[in-house]
Design a protein that fits this description.
Shape: rod-shaped
Helix content: 55-70%
Largest sheet: 5 strands, mixed
Order of helices and strands: HHHHHHHHHHEHEEHEE
Distance between the termini: 86 Å
Structural class: alpha+beta
Number of helices: 12
Strand order of the largest sheet: 1-2-3-5-4
């Protein structure tokens, strides 16, 4: 609707314009009677001048200029006050508001002074000379200053409201971004937890089951010829099965322990957890899983090597440096690297000799597992060939690099395979390029 945003603005401006027109008509009729001008044309002109207030929102300067123009006819003071208020609420520079207010104030003071001078009753009374200018100035200030101050207050309040609205919109956008990032972090935490569980399950199951398969194959081969050896192999298979079940129960027990508080909280609260809460909860589960399940230690590497020897593998273990206490994750990671490397030898290089080197250095521990070429050249159909999911080397690399260490693996010139890892004694920022032990 033209320059009005709301219908009530049209009604308000219409009412103000009508009141201003009536005022100007009455004052112009009085002015015409005092000066001898034709009443009807003067009244029509006054009504037209007063109705200019209808465009105060679009052209407030025009309203003030018209009010200043008709001030000598002793009318338009109300129109001038409304025009000044409207101008003060806009974004025009303050110096323009000051100039317009000064012009209205000066015109009003002059007209008021002339009216006092023309009053016969006041001329007959003994009043001081300063009284008339003082009253004229006081009246002019009373007409001019309040609307200007009120308009400036309204303008400042509008700016504050707009600023608060913009800030609220900005905060809403930031909260949306934070929610999206929290959801991304929660999804990342879920993925990390899934990968951690997958690595633990792989480490627990793959090595034990691989040895069980090797022993079972040996048991099948020697059962008819050597019952004592068969019984020994059967006992080894049973022991390894029990060890695998014990580790699985330990891991699943930790997960169930962390899941029960979550279910209890959900039943008590009955509210859907936020993305940030989910991320924090998953991080707590991961940390509790690492704390609750006691991981393997470097001191158990000798037992790991003995198990491979019992399965028929020729394994040589050498330890360099003085053993000392490392962080639990460091010892667990080094143990898992040796375990997975020996498991791969059982799978892909059945019967091949292997060497395990463990070096205790200043601030780090280095692990290397070398094996010779497999029996039968590693061709399909080789004895004791076992299935592989291809995740062992990837899991080892993830474990080592997560602690800021370096990991290298690959075939040797002589047909064997090498797995090397250097693990710092404490977490470091993004992993440096892997550097293994020298062959």
């Amino acid at each position: 609707m033209l320059w009005w945003e709301r219908r009530r603005g049209v009604l308000l401006d219409g009412a103000l314009a009508l009141a201003s027109a009536i005022e100007c008509v009455v004052q112009s009729a009085v002015f015409a009677g005092r000066t001898g001008l034709p009443v009807v044309p003067t009244a029509l002109f006054g009504g037209l001048a007063g109705s200019v207030l209808l465009v105060r929102r679009r052209w407030p300067l025009a309203v003030i200029l018209v009010a200043i123009a008709v001030l000598p006819a002793q009318m338009g003071m109300g129109m001038a006050a409304v025009g000044l208020y409207t101008l003060a609420t806009t974004e025009v520079p303050r110096r323009i508001i000051g100039v317009m207010a000064s012009m209205v104030c000066a015109g009003t003071a002059l007209v008021t002074f002339l009216l006092i001078e023309q009053d016969a009753g006041l001329r007959e009374q003994p009043i001081p000379m300063w009284f008339k200018p003082f009253v004229a100035a006081l009246f002019a200030v009373a007409i001019t200053l309040p609307p200007v101050l009120l308009g400036m207050y309204v303008r400042a309040r509008r700016r504050l409201v707009e600023s608060l609205r913009d800030r609220a919109d900005g905060l809403e956008r930031e909260l949306g971004l934070l929610a999206e990032r929290a959801e991304e972090r929660a999804e990342w935490a879920r993925g990390e937890e899934r990968r951690r569980i997958a690595r633990e399950m792989h480490d627990v199951v793959a090595h034990r089951v691989s040895l069980m398969v090797v022993h079972a194959a040996a048991l099948q081969a020697v059962a008819p010829k050597d019952p004592d050896k068969a019984a020994k192999n059967a006992g080894l298979v049973a022991d390894m099965g029990r060890q695998a079940l014990t580790e699985l129960r330990t891991m699943l027990g930790v997960l169930r322990t962390e899941e029960k508080p979550r279910e209890a909280a959900g039943a008590a609260g009955g509210e859907q957890e936020s993305a940030a809460d989910a991320a924090a909860r998953l991080a707590e589960i991961a940390a509790a899983g690492r704390r609750g399940a006691r991981g393997p230690r470097l001191s158990e590497v000798a037992s790991l090597v003995d198990q491979s020897r019992a399965a028929g593998m020729a394994v040589e273990l050498s330890v360099e440096g003085d053993p000392r206490g490392y962080a639990a994750q460091v010892e667990s990671t080094a143990y898992r690297v040796v375990q997975e490397a020996l498991t791969n030898v059982h799978k892909h290089a059945a019967g091949a000799a292997a060497r395990v080197r463990l070096a205790h250095r200043d601030g780090e521990v280095a692990v290397q597992v070398l094996n010779e070429a497999p029996l039968g050249g590693g061709q399909p159909g080789a004895p004791a060939a076992l299935p592989s999911g291809g995740n062992g080397l990837l899991g080892m690399r993830e474990r080592v690099t997560a602690l800021g260490g370096g990991f290298v693996s690959g075939p040797l010139d002589g047909g064997g395979f090498r797995v090397s890892a250097v693990i710092p004694d404490r977490d470091r920022s993004p992993a440096a390029p892997g550097v293994g032990l020298a062959s």
